[in-house]
Specification:
Helix content: under 10%
Strand order of the largest sheet: 4-3-2-1-5
Order of helices and strands: EEEEE
Number of strands: 5
Radius of gyration: 12 Å
Strand content: over 45%
Largest sheet: 5 strands, antiparallel
Length: 71
Amino acid sequence: MNPINPKKLLNSKWTKVNVVQKLKHFSISKVEYDEQQNVIECIIRAEMNAQEFAIDWRNLKDPQQWKIGWQ
């Protein structure tokens, strides 16, 4: 399991394990929190073409889907 601190998500870098449409390297471009500092929205951006996608940040914990950093 990838260790993730929700407060340090913004601008973190990720590598997708199963590459789709040549999109491999991503970074977190936007994170929104509620009053209790829980993540309510997480936007990830593909570095190749700047496409943005909304994701559930908890999916980043799965090492079969994501690796920390650009590899």
